[in-house]
């Protein structure tokens, strides 16, 4: 029996979160990488993200169901003229049946009218081929891993923010200048999912956990570089961070990695299509763009 594709519902999110965890663990194992451990806190955060995306763009997410079980997911959203594919995957036991292609087509149809599209792709070669054949352009991406004890103290331009109305207004203004649209809901969900907001009052912000840069946005390359050095070196969080999605379009980020003496390794690709505004300094979030 062939699987049925349908729209995702709020009742699906628990099963979808656990399916995504199993897909990601299988992929990292296949790529020879250390598998991530998903605990109940991680599942709760994933479920909150899925519920939020269903609330703001209910037509962007789909599931594949086989014999009553969800075996595939395609989660996407459109905001400010930008289509973002957040998650796409099929259970390992159900791959090579064309379900990934069907789920991708469903999400792309949803975002067909968007001026631009973005996918932060894993290194999975099958996914990369699908996106290329769907009209996306690939910018090979790298990951910068901060290393303790090798960088000189970075200037503390970023300050920890409690999310005051004035700070959030500054974040909105930075997003409008750099990305073309504010995204207060996305910011709130990233904070709710465990990220801390950091601000440079001259025109930059970052969301980061103790060890990972979730996203970074700055009105100029110099500000972006200064913020990223502070995060990679641990000058802000107290622990060296990892930053992903560095590409040829972010030379300032590679300069920051060199200044912080961070190590670099390949990490998938940033896939884009359509017409993009002139981005000043931006490292996307894989889920929210």
Brief write-up:
Helix content is 35%, strand content 29%.
What radius of gyration results from the CA coordinates?
Answer: 19 Å
Range of helix content: 25-40%
Number of helices: 8
Tally the beta strands: 13
**Gap between N and C termini:** 36 Å
Name the helix and strand elements from N-terminus to C-terminus, one letter apiece.
EHHEEEHEHEEHHEEEHEHEE
Q: What average pLDDT do the residues reach?
A: 92
- Strand line-up of the largest beta sheet: 1-2-3-4-5-12-6-11
Name the overall outline: globular
In the predicted model, the low-confidence regions spanning at least 5 consecutive residues are none
Estimated structural class: alpha+beta
Strand composition percent: 25-35%
Written description of the protein model:
The chain is an alpha+beta fold. The chain has eight helices and 13 strands. The chain starts with a strand and ends in a 6-residue tail after the last strand. The model has no long low-confidence stretch (mean pLDDT 92).
Give me the secondary-structure topology.
Blueprint: E1 4-7, H1 13-30, H2 40-56, E2 61-66, E3 69-79, E4 82-90, H3 99-110, E5 116-121, H4 125-133, E6 137-145, E7 159-160, H5 165-179, H6 184-192, E8 196-200, E9 204-208, E10 213-218, H7 221-232, E11 242-246, H8 251-259, E12 263-274, E13 281-283
Parallel strand pairs: 4-5
Antiparallel strand pairs: 1-2, 2-3, 3-4, 5-12, 6-11, 6-12, 7-8, 8-9, 9-10, 10-13
Helix pairs in contact: 1-2, 2-6, 7-8
């Amino acid at each position: 029996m062939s699987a049925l594709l349908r729209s995702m519902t709020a009742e699906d999110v628990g099963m979808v979160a656990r399916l995504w965890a199993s897909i990601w663990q299988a992929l990292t194992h296949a790529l020879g990488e250390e598998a991530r451990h998903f605990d109940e806190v991680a599942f709760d955060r994933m479920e909150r993200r899925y519920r939020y995306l269903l609330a703001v763009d209910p037509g962007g997410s789909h599931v594949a169901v086989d014999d009553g079980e969800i075996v595939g997911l395609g989660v996407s959203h459109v905001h400010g003229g930008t289509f973002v594919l957040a998650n796409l995957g099929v259970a390992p036991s159900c791959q090579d049946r064309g379900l990934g292609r069907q789920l991708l087509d469903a999400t792309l149809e949803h975002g067909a009218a968007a001026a631009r599209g973005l996918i932060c792709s894993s290194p999975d070669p099958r996914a990369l081929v699908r996106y290329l054949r769907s009209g996306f352009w690939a910018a090979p991406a790298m990951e910068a891993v901060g290393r303790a004890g090798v960088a000189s103290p970075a200037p503390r331009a970023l300050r920890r923010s409690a999310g005051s109305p004035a700070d959030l207004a500054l974040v909105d203004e930075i997003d409008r200048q750099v990305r073309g649209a504010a995204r207060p809901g996305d910011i709130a969900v990233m904070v709710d999912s465990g990220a801390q907001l950091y601000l440079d009052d001259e025109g930059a912000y970052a969301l980061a956990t103790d060890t990972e840069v979730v996203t970074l946005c700055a009105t100029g390359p110099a500000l972006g570089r200064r913020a990223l050095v502070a995060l990679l070196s641990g000058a802000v969080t107290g622990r060296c961070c990892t930053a992903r999605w560095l590409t040829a379009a972010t030379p300032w980020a590679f300069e920051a990695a060199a200044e912080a003496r961070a190590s670099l390794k390949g990490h998938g690709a940033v896939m884009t299509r359509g017409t993009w505004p002139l981005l000043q300094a931006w490292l996307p979030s894989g889920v929210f763009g």
